[in-house]
Amino acid sequence: MSAISWRAVPVWGLILALSTGSASAQAQRVVTLDDALELSGVAIETDTPATNPRLVGPRAESEAAAALVDQARLRPNPEVSFEVENLAGSGAFSGLQATEYTLSVGQRLELGGKRSARVGAAEAQAELAALRADLTTVELGQLVRERYLRAAAAAARVELAQDVVARNEELARIAGVLVEVGREPPLRALRADAALAEARAHLVEAEAESLSARIALAALWAGSEAPFVPADFPDILPPASLMAGAADSLTYRVARADSTAAAAEIERQRSLRIPDPTVSAGVRRFGESGDNAFLVGVSIPLPFRDRNQGNVAAAEARLRAANAREAVALADYEQTVATARARYLGAEARVETLSRTSLPQAEEALRLVSIGYRNGRFPLIEVLAAAEARDTIREALIAAREQRGLAAAELIGLAAQ
Question: Model's pTM, two decimal places?
Fold first, then answer.
């Protein structure tokens, strides 16, 4: 007895520390799933400025892509040049007598549909960036739901561990009384104390896992403190229909927009193969005679070597890769939906069976065995076996509810449009 008690001292210190943390967390506001979605910025309107770094980055990328559309619509700027010739030479060209001044304005003319191709490529990239920002919000919402469910499951396991500790404390007390009156051998009391020590150690482990799950949840909105999550599982219902909207899912739309952007980039690179002439016009003043003359010129690059063929080939390869990703996204969507739906239905059936049949039967069996043990009709090992069976069913019920919620959260993310 004394050896077990001394070994339990460090464990009880950790239990006290975790319990103090739990008490301070309970003093805070209880965070529901809706609160978590709002804190992470998922439930906030799209036009509202985001503060979560997980959303600020993708939305800023979308704003940058939209700004590039306006930039793509602009035409090339004209060029002004000023030249002074025959300045400070020798002989007849000494001084400023033979100086010639030339002022000209040049304008590069875009040929081959460069501007329209550039605008089309920028608009395709802006659409892709906007869809990726929306997908990031959807993925963050799914991650919030998943981590909240894991935190709720961890809190439920803490409650289960606390119940096990309380039950084993009662069994240890009864065993000590029965040993004192001679109705049980001392080995029964040692067995009860060992089970109690194991239950207390399991409680410490459950408390630590709960704290870790709550910290992981708070990290989704850069929270500095772990929120208090109750042990009640939130009602997360999957959408009624998914398979009919496979081509309209947000994941597939992102893949399709990627293909569209790749095709637009090909058109832009092909337009760059055509050289752009520069037309210039100006006036020249002759310093010696004071006469003026007008100038008109045209300059055209000669595409003998560089016809942008490498960039065109690279853009065509990127289009093939984007088309492949689009086909994979469409095929994987239906398979992923079917798998998630099967997991949801299976977990729901387990929850129904465990909560309505298995757990009530195990509770009743443990109640009857506990009454018999108090009256000396059943040995301690029967009580421990019945309690272990009941605890196993409670743990299975927690896991089934967690899996059902995770599958529903995945289906919600897949249904996003």
Answer: 0.81
